[in-house]
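FIELD: query
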Amino acid sequence: MMKPQSVSALSTFVNLGLGISKLVFGFLASSMALIADGIHSSLDVLSSFVTFLGLKTARKPVDEKHPYGYWKTESLAGFLVAILLGGSGIWILYEAILRIFDQEPVKLSSGAIAVVVISILVTESLARLKFYYGGKFRSLALVADAEHSRADALSSIGVLLGLCLVKYFNIADVIIALCIGVYILYQAFQIGKEITDSLLDVADKEVEERIKKICLSHKIEISQLKTRKIGTATFAEIKIKLPPKLKVEEVQRITDTLEERLLANIPELKQIVISIQAYQMTRTVVLPRLGKRIGELEGFEQIGPKKRGERIIIPLEKEEISPVFGGPKYLIVDKKDKNIVLKEVVKNPYFEKDSPHGARFAKAVRADRILTKQIGDNAKQNLENFGIEVEIIPEDKKLSDVLKEYENSSSN
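FIELD: result
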């Protein structure tokens, strides 16, 4: 199976060959429509390259400066493609209008017709390939590029028609060029509108409907649902109603099951914040006012070594403190009676490249405190609702210094 980046790279090289061929035969035949089509194909090269860069950048992992990832770069790439489309449409209209007042006879040739026919077949194939993978991976940039290729195929059909009619109707070539320009402007407007919505974090109504169906299948009532699109990713905040007499472990099971089902069935959903209306809390429904810390609660998922005292966890990267909270492994330190009784590095079994699940790991290992250089507001609130303290440490702090300070502190 091809990846979106591979499709975009293939399109770049194919359009380069088509664009050069159309321009060469367009100038030889003095066909404004074929020249316009050649410029359109040449712009496809640039738009495909921009799309490739956007797709590659969008899939970079989260970091300290971009805790929500780079998803919007794909939308920015698509927006640039829309601008290129609009610019080419305006230029084609301008040149076509000038040609009306300064007509030059079109020199029909079999080479020009052959180039146009090949272009129609190749660009339509590319458009279908991009639409397929753009829909499969929900890539706005690739879909925008597919629209560009489809516009190129349709404009080539118009050029072929114009070349066939030009011997009977001199202005046919110019009329076809005008139609191509108008069509390209229309496509640029449609693509630009969709991508602008994505950049403005509009609600994802399609995902909301799927969330509602999944909640309905689990007989869970939604009191509030908000989504926002960040590039190709969607983030959701859900408030659900549960009977107030449910035990904490039952609520935990319900919310965990709902979260797993939503993430498994809605691939574009990258982050979910679940609130329980009956308990007035965020995500996994344990408030400090319930009188228990997470380590004292029964019925929750538990991993890692047996807890032997106050437990802190520190995210690691290359044997040093990670610049972000979510990560593939953590140092677990237990302290009892002012002595370190456990020090162990534990892998995060929930870690995924785009969804680190650091908060879930912290709860599962029964952490009391987290020492981290950076953490998102939602994750911090989530953990504090569980009674887990979050301490932000300086960027330049080394792991050895943090451990030494903790060992010498007066806490148990």
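FIELD: remark
The chain has three domains: 4-197, 205-285, 296-408.
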